[in-house]
Amino acid sequence: MESVADASRRISRISSHLLPPNIQMEGCGLRRENCRAKGAAPGFKVAVLGAAGGIGQPLAMLMKMNPLVSVLHLYDVVNSPGVTADISHMDTGAVVRGFLGQSQLEDALTGMDLVIIPAGVPRKPGMTRDDLFNINASIVKTLCEGIAKCCPNAIVNLISNPVNSTVPIAAEVFKKAGTFDPKRLLGVTMLDVVRANTFVAEVLGLDPRDVDVPVVGGHAGVTILPLLSQVKPPCAFNAKEIDYLTNRIQNGGTEVVEAKAGAGSATLSMAYAAVKFADACLRGLRGDAGIIQCAFVASQASIGVTELPFFASKVRLGRSGVEEVHPLGPLNEYERDGLEKAKKELEASIQKGVSFIRK
Ligand SMILES: NC(=O)C1=CN([C@@H]2O[C@H](COP(=O)(O)OP(=O)(O)OC[C@H]3O[C@@H](n4cnc5c(N)ncnc54)[C@H](O)[C@@H]3O)[C@@H](O)[C@H]2O)C=CC1
Ligand SMILES: O=C([O-])CC(=O)C(=O)O
């Protein structure tokens, strides 16, 4: 088996997009300094941590296709050299560099504007997202320590489950390092919105692209709270439809885990959702106006959400990340009941994440 040192040497040969200085391209005698590469075009620098995984690979591919990205860093503890070589051959603008293992984490993170984290283990049938806590909490802690040190001003899109606990973990790591900025830490709940739009469109006989369902709360079971009373375009559902849609949206992840029968959880729809969300963050950073998405972010009662320190809400994205957290808006009785259930579970999950760092 290839040693980590050998793999690191191999990745360093391919990771600068072209060959390192003084290394000749096989058989042609061309040196890197003689190539006419002009370096990266203007744009944002994005790192994907966990880039060789089920989500990481299609996510990296889709980010390579995003015209707002000028530099794409792909980091993982395994297999990043292959994924990097493969994606770097796509004839799109972003320059791709690969990084393998803890010793290259700092290089992967230095100078990044946006860090997307799909690193960690996925569920198998019969597991809850919270069952992933023991492994994923440590992974997220290590990666966030790297972010605090190397790119403290980057926007962080955290995908690793359980999101309801990993986001509080990340916040605590950043607080400890003195770099916490609540505007820049976003738990990715976009897949809940993507699913809600799809399932609601199916019930209403609409094109999902024309449907917008706010999904608030968190990212696990009853904490996933679709606000069907606020769907756009405005529409009415009967009681049966509301029960069906709420259950299906709350259990969408489990539906995929069971269908994959032990081979992991949602990866392709998640990569799509993550890229849709990352693109919104980048357009916000660029200064585009009116970008509203749902995300699991730092929160408080005084802005019309809940008393919980984190909550998924509609947020306005801008140059500094989350520029405004929207209030929940009017809820019907069904949604108010759902909110009480969500809050109880969320409170425990948030506390679990906080205690993991403070203990
Ligand atoms: N927020 C959301 O809506 C969703 C979250 N997820 C979560 O995303 C995570 C990843 O899922 P998959 O890609 O399917 O899993 P996967 O197992 O296919 O890929 C995970 C990748 O993370 C890498 N990794 C492990 N430890 C690492 C470390 N310390 N540093 C960097 N990379 C590391 C692995 O080597 C692997 O390549 C899981 O926790 C899953 O539950 C999945 C779907 C939706
Ligand atoms: O269900 C899982 O474990 C993965 C996930 O978060 C989702 O698909 O929403």
Work out the radius of gyration.
21 Å
Continuous helix count:
11
CATH architectural group of the largest domain: Alpha-Beta Complex
Helix-strand string = HEHEHEHEHEHEHEEHHHEEEH
Beta-strand content bin? 15-25%
| Overall pLDDT metric | 93
Would you give the CATH topology of the largest domain?
Answer: L-2-Hydroxyisocaproate Dehydrogenase, Chain A, domain 2
Main sheet strand line-up: 3-2-1-4-5-6
> Span between N and C termini?
39 Å
Query: Which residues sit in consecutive blocks of at least 5 with pLDDT less than 50?
Result: 13-24
Number of domains: 2
CATH class of the largest domain: Alpha Beta
How many strands in all? 11
Main sheet properties: 6 strands, parallel
Helix percent band: 40-55%
Query: What is the SS-derived class?
Result: alpha/beta
Features:
359 residues, alpha/beta, Rossmann fold, L-2-Hydroxyisocaproate Dehydrogenase, Chain A, domain 2, six-stranded parallel sheet, three-stranded antiparallel sheet, 11 strands, 41% helix, 16% strand, binds 1,4-dihydronicotinamide adenine dinucleotide, binds oxaloacetate ion, tricarboxylic acid cycle
